[in-house]
Amino acid sequence: MTRAVLALGSNSGDRAAHLRSAVAALAEQLIAVSGGYESPAWGGPGPDGRESAPYLNAVLLAVDAGTDPTVWLERARALERDAGRVRDPDWRYAPRTLDVDVIAVWNDGGAPVISDDPEFTLPHPRAHLRAFVLRPWLDIQPYAQLPGHGWLYDLVRADPIAADLPDLRPRADLSLEP
């Protein structure tokens, strides 16, 4: 049985509906769903000069009876496709109906899966720098560790995460439970 932490984000269309749809699609695998958070978009203006809308974010903890960790990447891409996500090669931080990142995966024995495959790097290579991933993750696993980076609690208290936390707004009005 593999266990995975997935980060969800949406800043295009009905953001809450996109997150709820992803949660519903994974309902049978879910162990926990974080609260919702709103965060500023990254990357600055696009090629057309427009700024992106803020993101709604959440983190999920899920399990799968299969032992192949790549199933999580396949699910993430399928969820994005189902939400109508279109990747803009000219704008890395283009608005997204749904963004699903596989943050970390643990194998049957509970050991973290480590991968340097450019298509599926584990743990996620920038998760330790993202308040919108680490803070919601703390909601569902307060004693978790990000493999190779340490305790979440320590990571959110150190820069650059600590400096980003004031821009991350909890959204108590946003229920994502399936």
List the helices and strands and how they pair.
Layout: E1 2-10, H1 15-25, E2 30-33, E3 36-39, E4 55-64, H2 70-82, E5 99-106, E6 115-117, E7 120-122, H3 131-140, E8 145-146, E9 150-151, H4 152-157, H5 161-164, E10 169-171
Antiparallel strand pairs: 1-4, 1-5, 2-4, 3-4, 3-10, 6-7, 8-9
Describe the structure.
With 178 residues, this protein is an alpha+beta fold. It has a single domain, classed as Alpha-Beta Plaits, CATH 3.30.70. 25% of the residues lie in helices and 27% in strands. It is built from 5 helices and 10 strands, in the order βαβββαβββαββααβ. It has helices at 15-25, 70-82, 131-140, 152-157, 161-164, and strands at 2-10, 30-33, 36-39, 55-64, 99-106, 115-117, 120-122, 145-146, 150-151, 169-171. Strands 1, 2, 3, 4, 5 and 10 form a 6-stranded antiparallel beta sheet that branches. It has a two-stranded antiparallel sheet with strand order 6-7. A hairpin with a 2-residue loop joins strand 6 (115-117) and strand 7 (120-122). The longest helix has 13 residues, at 70-82. The two termini are 22 Å apart. The model has no long low-confidence stretch (mean pLDDT 92).
